[in-house]
Amino acid sequence: MGNDKSNSVWEASVPSGMRRPVADAPDCIRRRWLRAKYDEQQFVDGNVHPSPLPHQQCAGWLLKQGNYLPTWRRRYFSIMYDRLYYFLDNTCSTAALRGYFELANLTVHTDPDEDPLCVRLSNSHGGARLLTVKASSQQEAEKWVWALYHCVYSATQLGRRDLATSFARRRPSFKMGSLTQTAAARRGSAP
Questions:
Q1: Which distant-in-sequence residues (6+ apart) come within 8 Å of 86 by Cβ?
Q2: Given 1, 4, 66, 155, which residue has the most CB atoms within 10 angstroms?
Q3: Taking Cα atoms as reference points, which of 122, 141, 107 lies closest to residue 31?
Q4: What is the predicted pLDDT for the residue at 5?
């Protein structure tokens, strides 16, 4: 069975918000992709994918390295469609918001030799480091790399299609439950 024929079976229904790993993708992306493709058979024809995809609403505690002083601060991070927000606490309220990153045109990096728990985001064009975070475990780091890898891809695709009026571009309410309900209401479906 050739690659094209094999991929027509195993990758028949890859969601539009996901990207097949490229050659320079982190190892954990390729491992997880192969597990999802062959072991879990997530992309075979006939599979129904939830909307939004699980990686599009990833959230949890990470250590964030400061931009000016290399100190580590514990922050609550949340991916909401095409942005990565970080907060002081897990209420995700406007008062706790400390900042966000637009995920379009960024690159996700890991360095297993230096620190396997660190994940870095940098600008795709200039290569300047924008963000360094550290997870509490290897499994947690891989979860974030997987989520960021696919969200960067889908955010970049949104930017290319210039969907400035889509709900993914609007400022969310910062309450995780209400964001999900609001997005579902705009799509005309239940959460």
A1: 64, 75, 76, 77, 78, 97, 98, 99, 100
A2: 155
A3: 141
A4: 73
Q: How far apart are CA 78 and CA 153, in angstroms?
A: 17
Structure tokens at 153: 């891809």
Phi, psi angle pair for 4, to nearest 5°? -60, -45
SS3 of residue 185 by DSSP: helix
Residue 115: beta bridge partners? Answer: 111
Return the half-sphere exposure (C-beta side, CA atoms, 13 A cut-off) of residue 32.
21
Q: What is the pLDDT of residue 179?
A: 43
Q: What is the DSSP string of 123-147?
A: ETTT--EEEEEE-SSHHHHHHHHHH
Element (H, E) at 151: helix 138-161
User: Is the previous residue joined to 52 through a cis bond, with omega within 30 degrees of 0?
Assistant: yes
Which helix (H) or strand (E) segment is 107 a member of?
A: strand 106-111
pLDDT tens digits along 77-103: 999 878 999 999 999 899 999 999 999
- The tokens for 103 are 């995920």
CA distances to 2, 43, 158 from 58, rounded to whole Å, are 35, 20, 19
Give me the amino acid identity at 48.
V
pLDDT at 124: 75
CB 123 within 8 A of CB 105: yes
